[in-house]
Amino acid sequence: MKIFLDSADLNEVRTASEWGVISGVTTNPTLVARAGAKDFKAVVAEICRLVPGGPISAEVISNDTAGILKEARELAVINPQVVIKIPITPVGLAAVKQLATEGISTNVTLVFSTAQAILAAAAGATFVSPFVGRLDDIGANGLDLIREIVTVMDIYQYPTEVIAASIRHPQHVVEVALAGTHIATVPYKVLRQLFEHPLTVQGMERFQADWEALQGK
Ligand code: G3P
């Protein structure tokens, strides 16, 4: 499983990239607004620099195919790493289909059903992003969705990679991995939590104390 960081905050991207565990970044308009990234294209360019070679998802906001294509082409010239994030709609998939012919990668987002994921793969999406946490929030089962989508991608050998998104806590990361997702896109806070275990801290303190005691002899 590959791990992407789900953030538009350059400090978070810089720190997480130093940990050596992320191979891509996803953003969305809410994350961009939360980061105060007014110069969105400059932030996308910097994220590409911070995560060399990694897919960097930048979302469009237009609600018509022509508008999506215009935004997509403007974003794609920033860096070959840029992936165009497009919500799952008929006009969105029309743009996905066209962008695939232009060699521009896409990430179909706001996916909440296997049917939607099938359409995204049929249109030639590079990635598809089912939102686990938001389904859990309404009492649905986000993990069953991941399992179903991965199964369909495997059966038909679609090249579309599944990015488990809307990750809320470390156990979500473990569960989507067990469900077979290709990628999990993880918020910075959750990514930091993945490192933490009280027995690790306790063990390090014991090693330190024992080593220092030896030096003192
Ligand atoms: O990449 C999609 C993700 O950012 C959505 O997460 O927590 O807003 O459901 P959330």
Structural class: alpha/beta
The biggest sheet amounts to: 8 strands, parallel, barrel
How many DSSP E strands?
8
- The Rg value, from CA coordinates, equals 19 Å
Characterize the overall form: globular
Query: What is the end-to-end distance?
Result: 47 Å
Order of helices and strands: EHEHHEHEHEHEHHEHEHH
Spatial strand order of the main sheet: 1-2-3-4-5-6-7-8
Query: Average pLDDT across residues?
Result: 97
**Considering DSSP H and I runs of 4 or more, what fraction of the residues is helical?**
40-55%
Low-confidence stretches: none
Bound molecules: SN-glycerol-3-phosphate
Query: Count of helices?
Result: 11
Beta strand %: 15-25%
Written account of the structure:
The chain is of the alpha/beta class. Helix content is about 55%, strand content about 15%. The chain has helices spanning about 10-20, 30-35, 40-50, 65-75, 90-100, 115-120, 130-135, 140-155, 170-180, 190-195, 200-215, and strands spanning about 1-5, 25, 55-60, 80-85, 105-110, 125-130, 160-165, 185. The chain has an 8-stranded parallel barrel, surrounded by 7 helices. The protein starts with a strand and ends with a helix. The model has no long low-confidence stretch (mean pLDDT about 95). The structure holds SN-glycerol-3-phosphate.
